[in-house]
Amino acid sequence: MEHGLLVHILAMLVIAIIAIALLRRIGLPPILAYLLTGVVSGPAGFHWFTQHQMHSVAELGVVLLMFTLGLEFSVPKLWSMRRTVFGLGSMQMTITALIAGGMALLVGQGMVAAIVIGSVIALSSTAIVLKLLNEQGWLRRRHGELSISVLLFQDLAVIPLLILLPLLATDGSQVSFRELAWGLFTGILAFIALMSFGKWVLPRIFDEVARSRTNELFVLSTLVVALVTGAFTQWLGLSMALGAFIAGMLLGESQYRRQLEADIRPFRDLLMGLFFISIGMLLDFGLVIQYWWQILLTLVVVLFTKVAVVFGLLRLAGENAKVALSSALSLGQVGEFSFVVLALAVNYQLLAAEVSTILVAVAVLSMSIAPWLVRHSIDIAERFVGHIAKQNQQLEQADFPVIEQQSDLVIILGYGRVGQTISRFLKTEDVPYLVLDLDPKRVSEAKAAGEPVYFGDACRMSILKQAGIRKANLVVVTFGEPRQAEEALSLCRKLAPETKILVRTKDDEYLGELKEAGATQVIPESLEGSLMLVSQVLYKCGVPLPRIIKRLESERRNHYQYLHGFFTGAETDFTLDTMHAVPLPSGATVVGRELSSIPWRSLGVELRAIRRRGEEVNSPTKDWVLAKNDILMLVGKPRSIEKAEEYLLQN
């Protein structure tokens, strides 16, 4: 019996490997391969396993998925996007769930089933959409940001669903509003209690674990924390996934977030694969064939409803038709968390087998279509709203004046604080310039003052052509938002390959990407402010001006090397590079070795300088021989610095 079970497990894994390889070749997500494996190895196929047999192991996959989701959950990020997350996200979830739930009631489903169906259909796939947006380079575009905001709220909305579903399982008895409210209140109290307890205890536990410098202990501690918090919430009558999410969220703000995520990913991916295999076992092909037309009709209705709701909300919020439709198409599919909700609903007997089969089939088909829809969302949007774009283009051409082309013309994109400052200095030097801005009030005020400022979207090719970008000497991109600057930059470089383009940013986070996109020079405002302060300090200290200018230009060429890597303090952001001094004792094995023999790249750190007998040598040569009492100045992430220090100090 045990031998047969082992053979079945191996056969199931082989099927999963082949299915993943084949589906990846045609651009479909691995989730579909796992679902197909579940169909083949479950009751509808060879019947090697039942869904019940897979449930316990598969539930661990959901627990680890929610733990990693908690690690990614950032309260500051959520607050910075609160308008779109809580405004657009909540409206999308509410309206879509109400429409889907209402349709379920009309076809004869009960109230509890309608709530589950509405929740399942309202969710979209975070994993698929984020991956595809990242592949296309659309994460910082407007439709990408809007899609991420909605997905972020949906991930957040899973939490009350995890609390609600166990409360709806009343063995057929009528659930009262008081019982429901009390259950939700209990869940919220448990949430707050766990957060309060974990905020002080968990970071201290992982501080001790990190000091041991044992990777096995780190991985084991991560798994234990996720499972223990999950077991605690299950003991309270809630789901295990809720406790794991809380634990992840508490550790997400710590310095160990990235290490925790990296350590737990292999376990999460494997167990999530088993979870989706168990979902595939829910598919009964007999029922799929019996209800094939209902499945296809439901798929069409779901896609149309979700796209229409998001499109309508974004148009009401003032977004243009192209952005609204491309965002809506990206969110049209049913998501992986829908499978989590469906699995819990089937486990608690909240849905009939026929309904769950139809919903699983609809979710699988919608996720199969999702990659094509996301990749072609902009093309589809342009085609559907093409007549509107043509009308707008005609209006823009009518309103935009003919500009006299000049070889030394400077085009400024954006007329905010930075754009206005640049234009004032250009005016004093009699340098011809032209400005594009999208704020109608600012444009009208500037025009009334006689400024060459015109209303126009700098991310539109037709506007840039009319502004004469091909004959401009210089283009200055002053937008504060990176995604807008990158989009305008790519268009400018496409239209004017030889024109010099300067891009202003807040910091150098996207410096490499902007350089690759075609920027002649990127000016990070915060770092340039630091350099200006340094230049004044050096000048007041008597350093010659030519030497100061040479030093500043060197910093710019080296991508602001000396403006990164600082000694850490109590309030330091541990996601940034830090500097750490490592004195070499006489017993260290690296004493007497050349710098070239040390694997700095694999250690993940940079040797910034060496102090010897009170003197500092910046950027020492590769043939430098280390001596005892040398102090090495290392720059890198905290975890990498710990690893490097352990390597350098070993006896």
Report the average pLDDT across residues: 76
Gap from first CA to last CA: 53 Å
Query: Main beta sheet: strand number and arrangement?
Result: 6 strands, parallel
Counting structural domains, the number is: 3
- Percent of residues in beta strands: 5-15%
CATH class wording of the largest domain: Mainly Alpha
Q: Could you tell me the number of beta strands?
A: 11
Q: Mind telling me which CATH architecture of the largest domain this is?
A: Up-down Bundle
Poorly predicted segments:
387-401, 569-575
Q: What's the CATH topology label of the largest domain?
A: Na+/H+ antiporter like fold
Query: Residue share in helices?
Result: 55-70%
Number of helices: 28
Based on secondary structure, the structural category is alpha/beta
Tell me, what's the shape?
A: globular
Radius of gyration: 29 Å
Q: What spatial order of strands do you see in the largest sheet?
A: 3-2-1-4-5-6
What does this structure look like?
It contains 28 helices and eleven strands. It is α/β, with parallel strands linked by helices and 651 residues long. The protein has three domains: 51-281 and 302-383, Na+/H+ antiporter like fold, CATH 1.20.1530; 402-519, NAD(P)-binding Rossmann-like Domain (Rossmann fold, 3-Layer(aba) Sandwich), CATH 3.40.50.720; 566-649, Alpha-Beta Plaits (2-Layer Sandwich), CATH 3.30.70.1450. The strands form two sheets. Strands 3-2-1-4-5-6 form a six-stranded parallel β-sheet, with helices on both faces. The protein has a five-stranded mixed β-sheet with strand order 7-8-11-9-10. Strand 9 and strand 10 form a beta hairpin. The longest helix is centred in the first third of the chain and has 36 residues, at 177-212.
